[in-house]
Specification:
Chain lengths: ~425, ~120
């Protein structure tokens, strides 16, 4: 059996940044295992621009952003196994993988999970109707168009107004298809305003908020969908139904971290994010196994994936250099009022760096509110926010000095509180 | 009167633009000054970066991603897409390589956004 200090599962933006982070801390015995035949992950099919505004202060396309990291991984000489699919990881960090040359067994001293996420499919939505040809997730359609050069259809309805759905509305339109509507269950879109304007408004594509697809029609190929308005409980309003003919239905209804391998390694998952429960070092409940990027929680900006993953790489390096478990305190970080989840879920003020970024999402749209940080019942920090939306990841920074007056703190809570007076 | 949605931040201010009796533009609805700058640009010369693909031979995938090297006037996007329709490129290609010079008279080039080795190099 081959042995390695650090095995990284996935060669997308998270895996590449994690490898670079670990290498910078002096770990050289690394292997990146990637199932596709190229590094870069989903960025290779995200040919639109808007990547890198935070990380590089310039606007790059997905492949350009990926190429900066691919070049760095290559320059550092970090070994990569392409076309290699990991099948199993055990809690004591034995990896089974397969590639065209056969089976691989690797024993790693540390592992970083960087498998990314997967799209929610039709089966997760319970839409009544037949099961005809012509229904794809938006990302599958994106792969067909941008990597393989196939247009999935000519008359398109898109269910869900997340960014991938919006981007595909524009892409299909530019390639000559007619996008008849983007249908969104919620009264707001989780997509960026910029994408609503530049992908829908620019092409006069209607966005039907508080609407959903209530039936799929078509025996062999999809012939159309029934679309209904929904009430405040997201139930279809009787009598509001309209028929829209189409030959393609794209689904952009959410992403889920891809954690089958993590479960095999006894990693505890959060029921809210679908990703691993981690401490401030991004270490999972299985010692020596770390997680970062979209397999940990779904991000909206790749720039933050890279930042988080560099940190996971550095922490894995520290673990390798000193695997003795120090006596650790695990202070829970709780999602208070208005907050859906936080990453990490636990932290230790004794072993934290000088600063620790806690990322979180809110559970609704909040205007003119405060982001607050509590140590037990004491508010130690607050910041005004004009608007918070579930589609935009937020963060607060914990500083080591905050703990000098709160040595015995037993829990940390983050809240989004509506301002009572202006 | 014209309405626009500002794209600078998640608030997405609804901007209304009207012209008064002295032909002065009057922009309302913005919460910060970025809204004014955005509305003026959108009204006088709206531009967009076009990203698309062209056919790629001799490589592991059949499509090469490309973009305009700078934003082009919104009105020229269709013509730009048509210009890309029959382009075919053969690997190897490096990101940044010019695929079409001065596309549709916009003084902007179409450039590759991904480096693709030739398939023969891959097998070597």
């Amino acid at each position: 059996m081959q042995t390695v200090d650090l095995a990284i599962i996935g060669g997308g933006p998270a895996g590449m940044a994690a490898a670079i982070g670990a290498h910078e801390q002096g770990i050289e015995d690394i292997v990146i295992l990637e199932r596709e035949n190229a590094l870069g992950g989903i960025l290779n099919q995200c040919i639109h621009n808007g990547f890198g505004l935070h990380a590089f202060k310039e606007e790059l396309t997905g492949p350009e952003y990926a190429e900066r990291y691919i070049r760095k991984v290559t320059e550092l000489g970090i070994p990569v196994k392409l076309g290699t699919m990991v099948l199993d990881i055990t809690p004591d960090k034995e990896i089974t993988a397969v590639n065209p040359k056969g089976m691989l067994h690797i024993r790693a001293k540390a592992i970083i999970l960087a498998m990314g996420c997967r799209e929610r499919p039709r089966g997760a939505l319970n839409i009544p109707g037949t099961r005809p040809v012509g229904i794809y997730t938006a990302g599958t359609a994106q792969k067909f168009v941008n990597l393989n050069g196939y247009l999935p259809g000519r008359e398109v309805v898109i269910l869900g107004s997340g960014d991938i759905g919006l981007i595909m509305a524009r892409r299909m339109t530019l390639e000559g298809a007619e996008v008849k509507a983007v249908v969104e269950l919620m009264p707001y879109s989780t997509g960026l305003k910029r994408n609503i304007v530049q992908c829908l408004d620019d092409y006069d594509i209607p966005l039907l908020l508080s609407h959903t697809v209530t039936e799929i029609i078509g025996r062999h190929r999809i012939e159309g969908v029934k679309v209904s308005a929904v009430d405040e409980n997201q139930m279809p309003v009787p009598g509001s139904e309209q028929f829209i003919s189409c030959d393609t239905l794209l689904l952009s209804v959410g992403l889920l971290p891809e954690n089958e391998l993590s479960m095999a390694a006894d990693v505890s998952l959060s029921p809210v994010t679908g990703g691993a429960v981690v401490n401030e070092r991004l270490e999972t409940t299985t010692p020596g196994i770390f997680a970062c990027g979209n397999v940990l929680h779904v991000h909206d900006l790749v720039d933050f994936v890279s930042e988080e993953s560099m940190l996971a790489g550095r922490n894995a390096a520290r673990y390798l250099q000193n695997p003795e478990p120090a006596s650790r305190r695990e202070i829970p970080i709780r999602s208070g009022q208005g907050v859906r989840y936080t990453v990490p879920s636990f932290m230790d003020p004794d072993t934290m760096d000088e600063v620790l970024t806690i990322r979180f999402r809110v559970n609704n749209v909040y205007r003119n509110c405060y982001i607050c940080l509590y140590f037990d019942a004491d508010r130690v920090y607050r910041r005004k926010a004009r608007i918070l939306t579930p589609g935009e990841m937020e963060s607060v920074v914990l500083k080591k000095e905050m703990f000098t007056e709160h040595k015995g703190v037993s829990s940390i809570t983050i809240t989004a509180e509506e301002a009572t007076n202006a | 009167m014209k309405t626009l949605t500002c794209i600078n931040c998640p608030i997405g201010c609804l901007l209304t633009v009207s012209v008064d009796e002295h032909e002065n533009q009057c922009i309302k609805g913005n919460l910060c000054k970025r809204g004014i700058v955005y509305a003026k640009a959108e009204l006088t010369n709206p531009t967009r970066t076009v990203t698309s693909t062209v056919r790629l031979r001799n490589a592991a995938v059949s499509q090469l991603p490309v973009k305009t090297s700078s934003p082009i006037p919104k009105g020229t996007m269709r013509a730009c897409m048509l210009a890309l329709k029959y382009i075919e490129v053969s690997a190897p290609v490096a990101a940044g390589d010019v695929i079409i010079e001065n596309v549709c008279g916009t003084d902007t080039d179409i450039i590759a956004t991904r480096s693709m080795p030739a398939i023969t190099d891959l097998h070597a």
